[in-house]
Structures are given as C-alpha cells and as structure tokens.
Amino acid sequence: MAVKIQVNSFFSEDGKLLPLRSWPAKDAPSAVLVALHGFNMYSGYFDEPAVWWAGHGITTYAYDQRGFGSAPQAGIWGGDSAMAADARAFLTLVALRHPDLPIYLLGDSMGAAVAVLAMSRPDDGSAAAKIAGVILVAPGLWGGRSMHPMLRLALWLSAHIMPWNTATGSGLRRRASDNTTMLQALGRDPLVIHHTRIDAVYGVTNLMGLAYDAVPDLKRPTLVLYGTRDEIVPSDPVRQTVARLPMPPKSALYPEGWHMLLQDLQAKVVWADIASWIHDPTAPLPSGAPRLDQLKQ
Q1: Which CATH class name applies to 4-294?
Q2: Is the dihedral of CA 98, 102, 107, 108 positive or negative?
Q3: How many Cβ atoms from other residues are within 10 Å of residue 95's Cβ?
Q4: Structure pTM?
Q5: What is the pLDDT of residue 70?
Q6: Which whole-number Å values give the CA distances from 78 to 200, 203, 241, in the listed order?
Q7: What angle in degrees, to the nearest 10, is found between the helix axes of 198-214 and 149-161?
Q8: Quick one: pLDDT at residue 258?
Q9: Which residues, other chains included, contact 115 with Cβ-Cβ below 8 Å and sequence gap of 6+?
Q10: Do residues 139 and 112 make contact, with C-beta atoms less than 8 angstroms apart?
Q11: Mean pLDDT, rounded, for 14-21
Q12: Domain extents for the chain?
C-alpha cells in the first residue's frame, strides 16, 4: 500500500492508519518540523509548543506512533524497525508537500531514539538523507549494552513469559516535570497509556539500545537538549551520545529542566531555543544555557 497523508491521518507503508496533527505557520512558513512523541504519549503532547512555533514561522506535524494514542493496537509494542520506517516514510511525504522549505526532525525521549534510528540508515536519495537537522530532546538513548545485564535479563524474561503484565511506574518514584498541572492533566488523558505491558517496556529498551549504537551514523546537524533535573533518562548515556555523534552538535543543558522539557514550567525557554536553532543553527541559543559537555559526571 502506498504511503500517503490525509487531513488527519498518515497511512504507513504496511497500511497502518496513524492519527495525524498539524499546526500550520500563521504567516508564510520558513521551516517545517516533524515531531516524534515519547513513550506512552501521543501527538497531542506537542500542542502547546507547536502553536507557539506556528507563531514563529514553523509548520509542525506530529502523528501517533504505532502502538500509542489513537493508533491501531494502542498499548502493543509496534517494533523499532517499523517505527523508524514510519518516520522515514513520513519525512518523504512532508518533503514532497513542502519542496522549498527546510525540514527538521524532532524526537522527544523515546521519539529521539526513533529519530536516530530513522536517520542513521536513510535510503540513498530518500527525503531522510536531505533533512536539514535533527533535534533530540531529553533523548532516550540508553538500554541495550548500557543497561545493567541483570535488569536486561529480567525485562527479557518478563516480556517473553508474561508479556500481558503491566507496570504503572508508580513504584519508581521518579518525577518527570515540575509542571504539576500538566502531569495531572496527562493522568486524566485517556490517550496516554497509564498501564504499560512488559513487552512494551522490553521493546522500548531494545529500541533505545539500538539507537544508542546507531548514533555514530547520524550524519546530520544536531541539537541536543537535556535538563539537569531529569530523573528518567540518566546523564551518562546522554553525555556519551554527544561524544559519539560524528558531527559536533549544538547542545543546551538546562539547570532547571526536567525530563519533560517541552512541558516544564520553563518550557517556553526550550521552545525558543528550538525555533532559534531552526532559523539559524549557527547563532547562539537565546537561553544562554551551558553546553552538555559541561554536564557534571
């Protein structure tokens, strides 16, 4: 089946109907941003930043990745290869729709892993090979070999023996953001997955490990954003990711930033840095945030 974009949906190469949201620039657009959401989230996560970016000349697209939001079989892990293929196919369609505009790919948390995997192996001549830049927000690029082997084994056993079991994450006592109102709203949102199947946990762990290994193949201009208060993604894999990129990235380390940088109380600072980099990757970021290589070990 041919991939195609309709008003509110994106048909993948294997015929999956993935719900699509778009936020056109208010005036003549100067760039296009394709945004990939994080684990258990969906495309509506980008509503506030995308509205803000629309007022700054950026048209944004986001779709519910397979297994999330209103996509088919929500809650069932969609597979790392299929998710990366979806991103490459969607980028190709967006490039055809906006042939004269630079296109950027943003991945948030798990979405960053999908973005790296999608961009590290683009087909020759594909739109993915021509993307102007990649933005990794609180990148979930750990797991695999960077995860403790006993935890990796426990996840494998859980996923293959009792994949229907679910986990809420409440016992981890990790805080994702300082924006309590936003977190409460997500807790009431029926499109956010609140009980995760163990096989999905195993799947996302494998995805993050594959993306971590693929980092040296990401040969596009890159912006990496991370918060020092991130309690979800540890700092060591993020630091190692930056060091292993083939092109030195621009980066920002937000002293008051949590994992959900695009939704934190200081989110507009991050939105503005992203817009600034899209408009001029060589200019200093308006936040003045220190670089990630200043992250303390």
Answers
A1: alpha beta
A2: negative
A3: 18
A4: 0.90
A5: 94
A6: 8, 8, 25
A7: 130
A8: 93
A9: 36, 87, 105, 106, 107, 134, 136
A10: yes
A11: 91
A12: 4-294
Burial of 72 (0-12, 13-18, 19+ CB in 10 A): middle
**Neighbour tally for 296: CB within 10 Å:** 7
Burial class, 96, CB count within 10 angstroms (exposed 0-12 / middle 13-18 / buried 19+): exposed
pLDDT in tens, 141-190: 875 555 555 455 554 454 444 445 554 455 446 788 999 999 999 989 99
| Spatial distance between the Cα atoms of 137 and 7, rounded to a whole number of angstroms | 27
The SS3 call for residue 154 is: helix
- Element housing 117 (H / E): helix 110-120
d(CA 291, CA 214): 22
| Distance of alpha carbon 220 from alpha carbon 234, whole angstroms | 24
Instruction: State the sign of the Cα–Cα–Cα–Cα dihedral 47, 87, 291, 204.
Output: positive
Question: Dihedral sign, CA of 94, 96, 98, 101?
Answer: positive
User: Hey, is 167 helix, strand or coil?
Assistant: strand
d(CA 23, CA 59): 6
How far, in Å, CA of 242 to CA of 223, rounded? 10
287, two tokens: 């936040």
Residues in the chain: 297
Of 63 and 194, the one with more pLDDT: 63
- Taking only Cα atoms into account, the Rg of the chain, rounded to an integer number of angstroms, comes to 18
Q: Is 9 helix (H, G, I), strand (E, B) or coil?
A: strand
What is d(CA 255, CA 143) in angstroms, rounded to the nearest whole number? 25
Q: Which two tokens stand for residue 72?
A: 């088919």
